[in-house]
Structure formats: structure tokens, C-alpha cells
Amino acid sequence: MTKRLVVVTAGLGKPSSTRLLADRLAAATARHAGVDVQVIELRELANDIAQNMVTGFPSPRLGDAVEAVTSADGLIAVTPVFTGSYSGLFKSFFDVIDKDALTGLPVLVAATGGTARHSLVLEHAMRPLFAYLRAVVVPTAVYAASEDWASGGEGALASRVDRAAAELAALLGTRPGRPASTADPVFPGERAAEDATEVVPFAQQLAALAVER
């Protein structure tokens, strides 16, 4: 079965170097594995995301985007760097997704910026974000500065893109089944162990300690 790869790009311009990097990563992943690619441009959902943040209810367009991400076999997430971190639009989109909905999802993180000195955003901001969401982030993250495009995106950038794409392709299809609810996933044998364990209320435990004294 062909795997579903969703690409989330938070570039604001048109054309956008962020979208260009996202497209290269998607194409490289497709070379390593058969995938159906869906691209989500967050700039087109900016108003919907803002409304969801204040009302708690997604528009149909935003709901479709969230469903695409949470049901995907793999995700490529690309953001421009703003003030040393991911953009507010990028963060807001992932804020409206349930914190358990990306559990086990293979993710490739990438970013674009004006200079190479912003490249640490991948490690101090993006990787921790998806680790918190319990996604599986591939080892190689990709950062593209303005100078990387001077040679048409070839050389070192092309090598990083291909390596990261290969890592993501290798993880496609490995995501465990999504839990029926937003609670933590239950693995085989875990439920039986929980049912066999008697839960003692905390107040009762405190009372027992008082008697022992």
C-alpha cells in the first residue's frame, strides 16, 4: 500500500524558500519510497488557525488539514526562522492539534533562514517540540540558509536532503496503531496488567502511614 506523506510548510512569501525546501524533501523521500504527497501551506490557513485559537473550534479547512497530519504515515515539517525560533504560525498550527495525536508519527524537521547561525533552531526548538508530541523525529534535520541556494541548492544541502529523506522513508509504515481515544496508547498485555492491579486511593495510603507511626 502506498504510504501517505504530509508536508507542512509555514513559509509566508510566494515564492518561498521554505516551500522550495519542503518540495525538495518531499521529492527526495518519494525517490526512496512510494508515497502519496499532500502539501499543507499554513499561510492559506492563517485566519482559520487564529479563529481556532480563540474559539476552540476548527473551520472545515483547518479540520481537514489536522486530520491529514494526524492520519499520515509520515510528516515533513518546515518553518522559516523568526527571532531565533520557529514562526508563530507554525507553532500555532501544532498547538491546535491534540497533544497525543502525533504519537509515533515519523517526522522530518527542516527550517530556512538568512544565515547559518540560525541552524540550531532545529535542535533547540523543533526537535523538542515534536519530542513533546511523542513523534519519532529522524536523526538528520535540514537547515537551508540563503547561501545554500546560491549554488542552486546543490552540494552539502542536497546531500543533507537526501540523507534525511532516506531516514524518513525507512520509518514510513512503522507507526503503531493510533489509540481509540486521546489517552496514552495501550500496548499488548498492558491492559491486562492494569486490570490485575488494585489501585489504592491516595487518602487510604496516607491513613495507613499514620497508623504505622
Q: Would you kindly provide a brief summary of this structure?
A:
The chain has 213 residues and is α/β, with parallel strands linked by helices.
Secondary structure: elements and pairs:
Layout: E1 3-9, H1 17-32, E2 35-41, H2 46-55, H3 60-70, E3 74-82, E4 85-86, H4 88-95, E5 106-113, H5 121-132, E6 136-137, E7 142-145, H6 156-171, H7 190-196, H8 202-212
Parallel strand pairs: 1-2, 1-3, 3-5, 5-6, 5-7
Antiparallel strand pairs: 3-4
Please describe the structure with a list of short key phrases separated by commas or semicolons.
213 residues, alpha/beta, Rossmann fold, 8 helices, flavoprotein, FMN, FMN_Rdtase-like_dom
Detailed description of the structure:
The chain is α/β, with parallel strands linked by helices. It has a single domain (3-178), classed as Flavodoxin domain (Rossmann fold), CATH 3.40.50. Helix content is 43%, strand content 18%. It is built from eight helices and seven strands, in the order βαβααββαβαββααα. β3 (74-82) and β4 (85-86) form a beta hairpin. The protein starts with a strand and ends with a helix. GO terms for molecular function: oxidoreductase activity. It holds the Pfam family FMN_red. InterPro entries: CE1759_FMN_reduct, Flavoprotein-like_sf, FMN_Rdtase-like_dom, NAD(P)H-dep_FMN_reductase.
